[in-house]
Amino acid sequence: MNSIDGYCIRGENGGVLSHISRAYHDLQDSSPIWGLKASSKASPGDHPWFGGERIDATAFGKSMCKAFVDNILSLPSGTRVGGFKEIRYHTLGEYLDRHLEFISHFFPNSRFIFNRRNLESVARSGWWKEQDTKEVIRKLGAADLRFERYVSAHRGSSMLMEYDDYKDDPAALKPLYNFIGEKFEYQTVSDVLKKKLTHLQSPH
Predict the structure, then answer these.
(1) DSSP character for 134?
(2) What is residue 127's predicted lDDT score, i.e. its pLDDT?
């Protein structure tokens, strides 16, 4: 996607946005805070949640998301579409939906693209091959089911890609370009797919 003019899709950031969304939801879900907000009086100085009625979770969420864009994504001038890759969504469990709802709320017109691969192949690759194969397949299989459910419920803003469909067939990525509303350039996509990742290779 970075071959598309005006696109800047950054790499991983350690899942930092999920920590921001959890902090936001902690504030939103706090009974003590809502209790203080429902009161017509300011909390006294000896109250354990002193000043809690002044907490603005929405303003916090907006400012943290702006900081994420400014300091984490740090998009170049001229960017039309910005985003990032993340491989840690399988660790969110049932919180995944709330996290993606947070992103959709604070980043209007967001698009989510889930990229998955045959689980047995994943279990034999990268750092996964150092773990118990059955546990890897169980863990990632559960994540795949959550991804499927999310896409099924949010077809206008999300899609599911199958790595094994497009790894040897650039044309299989055309639905992705239709989804994001961009022109599909076969040769450009083909050239990108020929580049092999080297970050997991051992130095000689």
Answers:
(1) H
(2) 85
pLDDT > 80? residue 200 = no
What gap in Å lies between CA 39 and CA 34, rounded to an integer? Answer: 9
| Cα torsion 23, 96, 128, 114: sign | negative
- pLDDT tens digit sequence for 100-145: 999 999 999 999 999 999 999 999 988 899 999 999 999 999 999 9
Residue 3 contacts residue 192 (beta carbons within 8 Å): yes
Q: In which residue are the tokens 């970050």 written?
A: 199
Residue type at position 114: F
Residue 124 resides in a domain: yes
Domain count, the chain: 2
Does 89 fall in a domain? no
Examine residue 105 and state whether it is found in any structural domain, yes or no: no
Please check whether residues 78 and 31 belong to one and the same domain.
yes
Task: Output the CA–CA distances (angstroms, integers) from residue 141 to 49, 119, 138, in the order listed.
Answer: 42, 7, 5
pTM equals: 0.90
Tell me if 53 sits within 8 A of 42, measured CB to CB.
yes
CB 58 within 8 Å of CB 66: no
Strand-pairing partners, residue 113, are: 159
Residues 1 and 80 in one domain: yes
* Claim to verify: residue 74 and residue 147 sit in the same structural domain: no
Neighbours of 168 (CB within 10 A): 8
Residue 8 sits in which domain range? 1-84
Residue pLDDT, tens place only, 148-186: 999 999 999 999 999 999 999 999 999 999 999 999 999
